[in-house]
Amino acid sequence: MITYDRVVKGMTVIDSEGRTIGRVSHVEPANKKIADFEEAASVSTQDAINLILTAIFGATPRVPKEMSARLFRAGFIKIAGRGVWTGSRFAPLSAIDRVDEDHIYLSRTVHQLDSM
Question: What confidence tens digit (pLDDT) does each residue in 73-94 have?
């Protein structure tokens, strides 16, 4: 069983094919309360996702709209890519296969993360 408290900013992230895909730039634990905010947001005229994220976390972290509710509910890591042209990726905590002192090993490939 993985203890997510061992996942910290700066750890190297390796996908299921053994490729280093970047470093952890943010760790967000699972948040079961988001369902309450989703319900409140459904009756609001404000954009639901922005309402949820602002109510829970303020302006950060920035998560793509289509992924936000799912990721915040499950918990996630934000992975800063390697290289100048590589952006950030997001992986749900459930995608973590194992953790050692300096590395996080995912159960998914980088391509599977990109297609989420």
Answer: 788 899 998 766 667 888 999 9
pTM of the complete model: 0.71
Complete DSSP assignment for 4-35:
GGG--TT-EEE-TTS-EEEEEEEEE---TTHH
Q: Report how far apart, in Å, the C-alpha atoms of 32 and of each of 13, 46, 54, 103 are.
A: 25, 22, 16, 27
The first and second tokens of residue 12, run together, are 């190297």
DSSP string, the chain: ---GGG--TT-EEE-TTS-EEEEEEEEE---TTHHHHHHHHHT-SS-HHHHHHHHHHTT-S---HHHHHHHHHH-EEEEEESSTT--EEEEEGGGEEEE-SSEEEESS-HHHHHT-
